[in-house]
Fold 18S rRNA factor 2.
Amino acid sequence: MDPEGFSGPSEKIVKPLTPEALAAFNAIQDRAGVIYISRIPPGMRPSKIRHIMSAHGEVGRVYLQQEDAKRAYLRRKYTSTKKAHFTEGWVEFKDKKVARAIAGMLNAQPIGGKKGTRWRDDIWTMKYLPKFKWNMLTEQVAHEAAIHAAKLRVELSQSKAEQQEYLKNVELARVLDKRAERKREKGEEFQPKLINDHPRKKRLPDEEEESGRLKRLRTSGGELESVLSSIF
C-alpha cells in the first residue's frame, strides 16, 4: 500500500502473538466492517477522513487510493496544487454494525462542519461492503502493483529491442551511403539489394519471461478481482 494514502492506529505490535492473542485478533477482524468511499473531495487526506469518521464510531484502518500518475503529473504541471490527490478510499470500523449504520446514514449527505469549512457542501458517496475484510484490500492492491511492475518491464524490454533495431538500421544506412559514394567516384551506378520479406522477429528471452509472468499474475488475481467487482 502507498504509505501516503494509509492511516492506521498509532499502536504497534512489536512482539510475536501467542495462540490466545492470535485467536483474539482473528475475532476482532471478524467483527470489523469496511466502508467504501467512491469519491474523495479534493485536498482531503487520510488523517482528515479518520478524524471525521471517528466522530461516528471506532475506526481501525483507513486507506485512500492516489490518483493516476499521469493525471497527477498534468495537474502538478498546469495547476498550483502540488499535494497528492486521492480518488477513492476504504475505512475500517471495529464493529460491522456501526459501519453499516454509518454508510446508510452518511451516503448522499453533505459532509457538513463549521461554516466556511472547505468541504462543508461536498457530498459523501459511500457503501458498506458486506463480507469484505481488510486483507482482501491489501491483496488486491499488491496484485495491481505487481501487474503494473510487470507491464513496465515488458514495455522497457520492447523499447530496448526497438532501440537496438533502430541503431542497426542507422549503421546499415551509413554503410550503404559509403558504398554508393565509392560507386559514384568510379562512375558506376549503385543499386542496393532490398529484402522485402524479413523473418519474423524473435522475442527476447526477458520479454517472453515478463509476458508469462504478467499472464500468471492476471490468472492468479482473477478470482479476487471477480469478488471485488461483484462488491463494487
Q: What stands out?
A: The longest helix spans residues 134-185. The chain has a mean pLDDT of 78. The two ends are 19 Å apart (CA to CA).
